[in-house]
Amino acid sequence: MTIYLGFSCSQHDPAIAVxxxxxxxxxxxxxxxxxxxxxxxxxPPDALGLIEPILDKYVHAEQVxxxxxxxxxxxxxxxxxAHLSRWGLAALxxxxxxxxxxxxxxxxxxxxxxxxxxxxxxxxxxxxxxxLTERNGFRSRLKKKGWNHHLCHAATxxxxxxxxxxxCVVMDGMGEGSSTSVxxxxxxxxxxxxTPGFANLASLGIFYSQVCFAAGFDPLAGEEWKLMGLAAYGxxxxxxxxxxxxxxxxxxxxxxxxxxYAAVVGHLLPRxxxxxxxxxxxxxxxQKVFEDVLFEFLTMAHGRWGGQNLIFTGGCALNxxxxxxxxxxxxxxxxxxxxxxxxxxxSVGAALLAWQAAHPDQRVPRFSTPYLGSVRTxxxxxxxxxxxVEPCLSAENSDQLSEFVAGELASGSIVGFMQGxxxxxxxxxxxxxxxxDPRSPDIRDRLNAAVKFREEFRPFAPSILHEFGPDxxxxxxxxxxxxxxxxxxxxxxxxGVRHVDDTGRLQSVTxxxxxxxxxxxxxxxxxxxxPILLNTSFNVMGRPIIHDTEDALGVxxxxxxxxxxxxxTVFRKRRPVN
Length: 578
Hints:
By secondary structure, the protein is α/β, with parallel strands linked by helices. It contains 21 helices and 23 strands. It has a 9-stranded mixed beta sheet, sandwiched between helices. Helix 8 packs antiparallel against helix 12, helix 9 (224-231) packs across helix 12 and helix 10 packs across helix 12 (280-305). The model has no long low-confidence stretch (mean pLDDT 92).
């Protein structure tokens, strides 16, 4: 018997996945949760202290297949990237100029290259090798393999899709030779359709990250979300659009850059000093460019290779505003975006590709649940009781819990909700969530200021019972992973989850996918007539989503959350004394 491990080994967003000998995904989680280090820059994918519990729980097979999300060829190029990065930064310094921040802005893209990452598959997963060797008395049988980066993206997305046949487009910051790839998915297998690029540096993802920096945000912290949210407050700058749109082009089956691309990006840098809200027009215009280039590329792919079903993945598929417009802006009729389209999701793809290679006559089993992560332990809860922190309710069943929590929500309480297994991917989907009544007109300001501690313009997402979706959204399509933003029907948007442009990044909730969360929203609907809850991730700005009870308590006691629900146990915060 063989167990298949997948390790996302990009220099950011490391993650681990476990697939058993039957091809079932047993576990998948971004390492940032356990490490409590947002995005996990430069952390080894098999960090000590993190890998041991996974081995103890899941790895009892005679053989272990360890799989990485970059090929050996790509890993060997890392040292050249580091040399190029140092040369590039030195060149920027020689260019002179007094504005240090502008120089850093031109050079931030070189940051990841300054870290000397391992340059072969053999140099990675040494912590895993150590622990397996210790367990097996120096008889470890570990097989290591690196897989093409975009193929890993495609595998995660395709094997989690509902489609028997589809076109799969991967678009991210950079893959192995280019930032785009196109695959066919048919009969359970992926086939590359476009010609692999060689050192094609054109990237819609990098373009968006550079604008993110120019607008005053930090792309290394993943703050492209903020640029996307800010865009709704702006309007089109026609001259800026003309310049930026001509800088990134669709050329045949790939992207290309104009000769003045560097000048176009450099022209944006002085705006960084202006502050966030002053850059709303920049954000709107950049989002418009992103969408227009994306839709042109997707339409080109449809014209060349056909297909009504689209699988879209890679870092660019995290742009939910663009995702929500794909079906109305391109020839495709159905869209699937996986729960983890970024590099963390590749860990699952690598493990499944290894399983497929070992079972060539079998189809890879499909998976669709995002609830693949860790489970809260009961030990911390027992310590709370031991030291005098008593719950206000220990529910006897899920119905009692849902009725109680729904009543608290309807009365204006903000609720921290931690249930079952953690979600895989960047979104909180009801198991690691902060919940509130979306009808309150001031709930967004309260959450941003006193719970999340983030910018006032940031929106919040609606989690809606799937059966009510068409009653509230235009062109409704099921969105199980909060992966797309749609327009509200006129007059249907609750104030707390209506963004300034009349949109909402929705989660469609079904009983089959999450019975408890569906039951909670249903109970809220019975009390209020509204089948929607405000749902945001259980964390504060700059921190990963909570991993354990201690994380949950930390957020609960240091923010304006009123109620904490850990499994079937509910804690109420004491009212502050005036």
